[in-house]
Backbone:
């Protein structure tokens, strides 16, 4: 009976533990030895070569990396860091974009006033919008610079030809993401920039109503490739809805899938390029 | 990487050398880089607000109406080409051309390091296309194109009523061809001749490479290059000689 009753700690002993700091290591031991801890973390944190490898190999977020890397690949002078920054900016637009989606309705009557609401009434709404827009613009620049760097280092050469092609798709989708987002504020800047841009589709050979050889196909202003893109013959509410869906769902999914391939291929093609 | 240019054949940091652990050496770099970018983005977003103009109004066309800035290079070549080329064919050619680069550039040197001497032509062509035809035209489109898509210097007032004399003529007209069919034949001869002569000169100069590089590769390479330089030639013809079209046909004009 007496052995089952809770042990009353000796006050003097406890004070000793606290004063000497021993209590912290005991608590730490208690925590890191617990089932919750050991099931969550797969290896120790001590800076040993084994843990350095495990830190990458056993972590879902970091295992995109190889566990070891050439020294030159760490040089900012070599990579300009542009691919990684582009990805980071993409993630920023995803996070801020989802927040914006809570407040924004892609409807002709509401869109512009939701923008005003976001800017003036939603806490941090203006900041979210700014971050979304500037990250998108910055992403366009960094993806171009990344491409320029890859060209200058000849990194598209064998065995990385295929990944360069994926990269060109990604540049294109970056521009399309930015372009479809450009319409969503539904202000004068948005509407006319997208009008100028989509008017080009009218001139598509064969498929646009003003393009060469359109008469052989029977393309009309209401029935051509531009009408398909904007859901009518002018940039109106149907265009807004289409661009919204393209911007928030369609293109991010495709770009995301291509990013997976792009990153995977870097590893499969022998890691970051370097002198052979 | 400067020493790379001086001693191109030397393996300065060849594979098989010392490798470093990604944790911590790369991850800490990525973390720092991400931190800096996020800080910069946040500060930028606090300081500068994204633009929001008045509500969209289909009855009120602003002058100038500009595409998003990253497309202004394409919008600018609309001055020199019809929309089917500037707005559709040119972008498609840019994308396809970029994708073809690894398959057209068979120079084995310069793979994975910076070098100018081992691949001068490739670097010149790409840099010209990117920095001049893409970036410079964007800068011009953003800052120098005003109402009516006219050129304005930064210190000039954007006068919407600026009068620009339209004295452009077609190339066949400038050479004294006055009939419609004659002009069509003349223009066609000029365009086809340009590509034929350019291709022939290239194949003659690179005749030794034909076997190792292959006909299709060389053909695509020179055609893409001739199209790119054709854009430059057209810009010069318009700005320097007031030439509007080179080739006028019932279906398309170039």
Residues:
């Amino acid at each position: 009976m007496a052995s089952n009753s809770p042990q009353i700690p000796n006050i003097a002993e406890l004070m000793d533990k606290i004063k000497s700091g021993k209590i912290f290591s005991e608590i730490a031991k208690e925590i890191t030895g617990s089932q919750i801890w050991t099931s969550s973390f797969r290896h120790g944190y001590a800076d040993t070569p084994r843990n350095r490898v495990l830190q990458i190999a056993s972590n879902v977020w970091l295992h995109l990396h190889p566990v070891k890397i050439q020294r030159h690949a760490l040089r900012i002078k070599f990579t300009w860091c542009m691919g990684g920054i582009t990805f980071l900016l993409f993630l920023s637009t995803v996070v801020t974009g989802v927040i914006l989606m809570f407040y924004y309705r892609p409807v002709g009557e509401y869109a512009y006033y939701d923008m005003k609401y976001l800017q003036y009434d939603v806490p941090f709404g203006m900041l979210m919008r700014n971050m979304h827009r500037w990250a998108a613009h910055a992403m366009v620049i960094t993806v171009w610079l990344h491409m320029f760097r890859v060209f200058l280092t000849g990194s598209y050469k064998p065995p990385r030809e295929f990944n360069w092609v994926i990269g060109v798709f990604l540049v294109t989708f970056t521009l399309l993401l930015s372009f479809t987002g450009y319409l969503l504020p539904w202000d004068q800047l948005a509407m006319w920039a997208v009008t100028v841009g989509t008017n080009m589709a009218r001139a598509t050979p064969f498929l646009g109503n003003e393009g060469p050889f359109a008469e052989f196909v029977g393309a009309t202003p209401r029935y051509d490739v531009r009408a398909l893109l904007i859901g009518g013959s002018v940039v109106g509410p149907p265009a807004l809805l289409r661009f919204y869906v393209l911007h928030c769902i369609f293109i991010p999914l495709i770009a995301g899938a291509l990013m997976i391939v792009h990153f995977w291929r870097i590893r499969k093609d022998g890691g970051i390029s370097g002198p052979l | 990487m400067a020493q790379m240019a001086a001693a191109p054949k030397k393996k300065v940091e060849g594979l098989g050398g010392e490798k470093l652990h990604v944790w911590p050496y790369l991850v800490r770099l990525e973390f720092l880089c991400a931190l800096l970018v996020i800080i910069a983005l946040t500060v930028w977003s606090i300081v500068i607000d994204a633009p929001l103009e008045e509500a969209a109004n289909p009855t009120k066309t602003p002058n100038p109406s500009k595409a998003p800035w990253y497309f202004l290079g394409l919008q600018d070549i609309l001055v020199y080409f019809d929309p089917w080329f500037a707005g559709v064919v040119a972008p498609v050619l840019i994308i396809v051309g970029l994708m073809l680069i690894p398959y057209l550039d068979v120079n084995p040197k310069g793979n994975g390091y910076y070098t100018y001497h081992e691949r001068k032509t490739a670097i010149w062509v790409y840099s010209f296309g990117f920095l001049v035809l893409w970036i410079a035209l964007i800068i011009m489109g953003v800052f120098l194109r005003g109402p009516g898509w006219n050129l304005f210097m930064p210190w000039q007032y954007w006068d919407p009523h600026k009068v620009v004399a339209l004295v452009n003529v077609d190339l066949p007209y400038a050479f004294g061809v006055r009939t419609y069919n004659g002009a069509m034949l003349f223009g066609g001869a000029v365009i086809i001749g340009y590509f034929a002569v350019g291709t022939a000169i290239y194949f003659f100069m690179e005749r030794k490479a034909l076997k190792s590089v292959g006909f299709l590769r060389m053909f695509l390479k020179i055609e893409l290059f001739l199209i790119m330089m054709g854009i430059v030639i057209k810009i010069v013809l318009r700005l320097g000689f007031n030439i509007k079209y080179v080739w006028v046909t019932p279906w398309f004009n170039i």
Observations:
- The mean pLDDT of chain A is 93.
- Chain A touches chain B through 94 residues (CB under 8 Å).
- Residues 237-268 of chain A form the longest helix (32 residues).
